[in-house]
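Following up on my earlier message about pyridoxal-5'-phosphate. Here are the inputs again, as you asked, copied directly from the submission form:
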Amino acid sequence: MHSYAFPGDIDPVLMEIGSQPFLYMRTQEFSDINLESEKILLDLIHCTGGRTIIYTGSGTGAMSAVVENYVSTKGKAFVIDGGSFGHRWWDLCRYYGIEVVDYKVPFAHDIDYGDLDKRVAIERPGVFLCQHHETSSGQLFNLRKISDICHKYGVSLVVDVISTFLAEPLSMDEYGIDICITSTQKGLNIPPGLSVLFFSANLDGYPFAHKGYYWDFEDNFSNFRRGQTPFSPATILFLQLHARLKQLQAEGGESKNISDVCHRCEVFRGLCRKYGWDILAETPSHAITGFQTNDTAERLIFRGLIDKYETFIMPGSKPGFYRVSHMGLQTDKELYELAARIHEFEPR
Ligand SMILES: *Cc1c(COP(=O)(O)O)cnc(C)c1O
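Thanks, got it. Here's what our run produced:
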C-alpha cells in the first residue's frame, strides 16, 4: 500500500511506536518528553522566546482555538479566502459572531498584493488570517508581502502553516507572525490527531478570551508550562511526535526535510509534463502537486488506483483535478510508477 494523501507513507520506525506499550501521561517522564518537543518545534519554526500548545485534535481544532481565544479579542478580522481552507477561517469567524472581511482570491491564483494593500488600508482590521499554502489548490502565498502589509497597518498576523511547516522555508521571527498553527499529518509526517500552535514572545501576557472550555489558551499554557495537558492527551501521538522531532533535530533542523520534499515535487512535476497534466496553481507550493487530468466526475483514476494498487491520491474540488502530497516518504521509482498508473486509468 502506498499513500500520496496526507500524511503519506510514514517511517516504519515511527509507526512501530503505535504498537508498543506506552507510559502513563501524568508522569515526569511524559512531561520531559513534551518540554523537549516544544523546544525543538520552536527551533524548527524560528520562534525565539515563543511558546507552544499541543492539542489532541486536528488542525481545524487549532484554527477554532485561535478564533475563540484570540481573534475574538481583536475586533474586525480579515481573511484570505482562496479555497476551502481559507474559507474555513471565514466560516469560523462567522460562527463566533466576529466581524470579518472575506477577501476572495480565485481558485489556484496568487493574491493581487497591490489590491490587498488597498483593502487592508480601507478596512483596518485588528487581525489578519491566512494560509501560507491553500492546500485545496496547491497555491502558495507570499508571506513576505503579506507580512509587509500587516506591519505597515499594524495588523496582527496569524498564519495557518499546516501544509508548509517542514515543506517550505518558514521563520516566524523573520515575518513577525504572532501565531502559527500546524498539525501532525502534513509536514511532520506522522498520523493525524495532534495540532501545534506557536505563539511569538509578543503575546506573552496577552489577555486572551475564554470562549471555549476545551481549547482555553490560559488553561493549556499553565499545564504545558510543566509539560502537561489539562485533559487526556493522545499519548501515543505525543510519543510519535517527539520521536519525529528528534529525527529532525539529528538531521540538523528542517533544511534536509524541505529539500527532500522539493526533490520529490520536482520529480513528479517532470512526470506531469511528460503525461500532459497541467499544474493549476499560479505559484505552486512544494508540499503537494495539484494537477489536471482528463478524468471524469466518476473519478476513475482515484478508484482504479485503490482497487488495483492499494494506492491513495487526493481528489480535488473539480473533475479530473487531483493532488499528490510530497510530504510523505516516496522514492523516485515510486513516483515514476505512480504517474504511469495514473496514466493507465486516465480516459483517452
Ligand atoms: C489539512 C489542513 C487543515 C486542517 O485540516 P484538519 O483535517 O482539521 O487537520 C487546515 N488548513 C490547511 C491549509 C490544511 O492543509
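One observation from looking it over: The mean pLDDT is 97. Hope that helps, and feel free to reply on this thread.
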